């Protein structure tokens, strides 16, 4: 009798898991409570994998030996509670794929900067000629690649939700960018629960592995002090570099690792700003673990083009610059965005609040923001945070209205910044959809 594996969610990761499970001889069933995209339905049919959409059939799901769930389904969902009561293991796609993966892994997490760092690390390794895959929150499904591609290394971006479903998985190189309040609605509004989730990136690592982390992050430093950490610890900081470690000295980014030193002027980095210096250092250390030569590393750090929807300088219309930072789904990301823009800003914000505390933005908003356009179904928290601080705080209900209102409020030399500090699911499919709609409406001006 073949083991029965049920997959909840038929997006990229769910379909990838189904293909790997089928290849490994499981009896596979895929269930999605929403509509499955046609391209994924076609693939499931092609592989002769049974699926359902628009519902979850308890009888078929509770009959599983193992369940792989989409990271978007919270642990509090009634179906997940039923599976837990029956003692059926519920795991993530990364955990499942890790059971069959033989390649080395660089796993990157953090509240902010993880996508840029992941794509930058992948860019460096690929340009240096390594056979490398990109997976997790970006790129193709990890499970799908394990099933059908033969990579030597994977660079994997991991959210806290993915980490929550990982138990036996082990990263060869783990990277922790920073920890700031985010997704607290999924963690009972208890910060320590979220911190514990992020630190799961270290689980199962041995003395032969590497842990790269931001030494300027107080939450990370406090947590490290409480723990016995087995892998080699390599810090990065905007202060003088440690050995081993990365830092900045006399406007030079310096990395010390394995008796080697790498240095380049921070002015030559393709990604500018303090947060991007952190991203470049983390990616640089991870690459040096894989013995990338200094000249190759320098060339990649100088030539990398940024990430779509992350502080993407998009268009100028009548002297007004439009910046797409749709990927900023928490307050800390928006802080970086506001901090990096020198000019007078019309800020488009709002969406689904994840337990945000906007007070950390007050000094920057007071100094730089001339108007706020609230784009969401419930903007009460943004109003209560900024109504007395900014003269114009207005509500809109579509991206078309938001862009037109911002354009009307801005003047030659101003910047219109879409940096929502919130999730997008009230009005958009995801942050990419939100960013694409923003760019489309700016083009229409």
UniProtKB/TrEMBL annotation:
Q: Where in the cell is it found?
A: Cytoplasm
Reactions the enzyme catalyzes:
UDP-N-acetyl-alpha-D-muramoyl-L-alanine + D-glutamate + ATP = UDP-N-acetyl-alpha-D-muramoyl-L-alanyl-D-glutamate + ADP + phosphate + H(+)
- Enzyme Commission designation: 6.3.2.9
Task: Alphabetically list the UniProt keywords.
Answer: ATP-binding, Cell cycle, Cell division, Cell shape, Cell wall biogenesis/degradation, Cytoplasm, Ligase, Nucleotide-binding, Peptidoglycan synthesis
Primary place of residence?
cytoplasm
For this record, an example GO cellular component is: cytoplasm
Gene Ontology BP terms? cell division; cell wall organization; peptidoglycan biosynthetic process; regulation of cell shape
Query: Which regions span the lipid bilayer?
Result: none
Could you tell me what this protein does?
Cell wall formation. Catalyzes the addition of glutamate to the nucleotide precursor UDP-N-acetylmuramoyl-L-alanine (UMA).
- Which PANTHER family does the annotation name? UDP-N-ACETYLMURAMOYLALANINE--D-GLUTAMATE LIGASE
User: Which family would the database say this protein is a member of?
Assistant: Belongs to the MurCDEF family.
What this protein is called in its record is UDP-N-acetylmuramoylalanine--D-glutamate ligase
Source species of the chain: Mariniphaga anaerophila
């Amino acid at each position: 009798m073949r083991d029965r594996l049920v997959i909840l969610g038929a997006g990229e990761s769910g379909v990838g898991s189904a293909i790997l499970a089928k290849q490994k001889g499981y009896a596979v069933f895929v269930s999605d409570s929403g509509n499955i995209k046609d391209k994924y339905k076609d693939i499931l049919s092609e592989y002769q994998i049974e699926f359902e959409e628009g519902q979850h059939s308890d009888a078929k799901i509770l009959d599983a030996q193992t369940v792989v769930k989409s990271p978007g389904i919270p642990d509090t969902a009634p179906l997940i509670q039923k599976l837990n009561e029956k003692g059926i293991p519920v795991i993530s796609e990364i955990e499942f794929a890790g059971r069959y993966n033989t390649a080395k892994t660089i796993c990157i997490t953090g509240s902010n900067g993880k996508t840029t760092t992941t794509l930058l690390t992948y860019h460096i390794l690929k340009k240096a000629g390594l056979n490398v895959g990109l997976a997790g929150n970006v790129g193709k499904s990890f499970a799908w690649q394990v099933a059908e591609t033969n990579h030597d290394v994977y660079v994997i971006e991991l959210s806290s939700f993915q980490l929550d479903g990982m138990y036996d998985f082990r990263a060869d190189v783990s990277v922790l960018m920073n920890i700031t309040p985010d997704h607290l609605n999924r963690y009972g509004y208890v910060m320590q629960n979220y911190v514990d989730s992020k630190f799961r990136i270290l689980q199962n690592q041995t003395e032969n592995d590497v842990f790269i982390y931001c030494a300027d992050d107080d939450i990370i430093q406090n947590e490290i002090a409480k723990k016995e950490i087995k892998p080699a610890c390599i810090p990065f900081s905007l202060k003088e570099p440690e050995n081993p470690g990365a830092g900045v000295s006399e406007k030079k980014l310096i990395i010390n690792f394995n008796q080697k030193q790498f240095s380049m002027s921070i002015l030559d980095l393709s990604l500018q700003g303090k947060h991007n210096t952190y991203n470049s250092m983390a990616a640089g250390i991870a690459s040096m673990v894989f013995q990338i030569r200094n000249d190759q590393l320098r060339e990649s750090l100088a030539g990398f083009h940024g990430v779509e929807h992350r502080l993407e300088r998009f268009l100028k219309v009548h002297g007004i610059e439009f910046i797409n930072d749709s990927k900023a789904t928490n307050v800390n990301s928006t802080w970086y965005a506001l901090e990096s823009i020198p000019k007078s800003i019309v800020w488009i914000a709002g969406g689904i609040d994840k337990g945000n505390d906007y007070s950390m933005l007050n000094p920057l908003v007071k100094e730089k923001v001339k108007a706020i356009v609230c784009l969401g179904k419930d903007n009460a928290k943004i109003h209560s945070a900024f109504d007395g601080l900014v003269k114009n705080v207005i509500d809109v209900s579509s991206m078309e209205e938001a862009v037109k209102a911002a354009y009307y409020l801005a003047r030659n030399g101003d910047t219109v910044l879409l940096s929502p500090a919130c999730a997008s699911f009230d009005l958009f499919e995801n942050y990419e959809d939100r960013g694409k709609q923003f760019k489309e409406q700016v083009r229409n001006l």
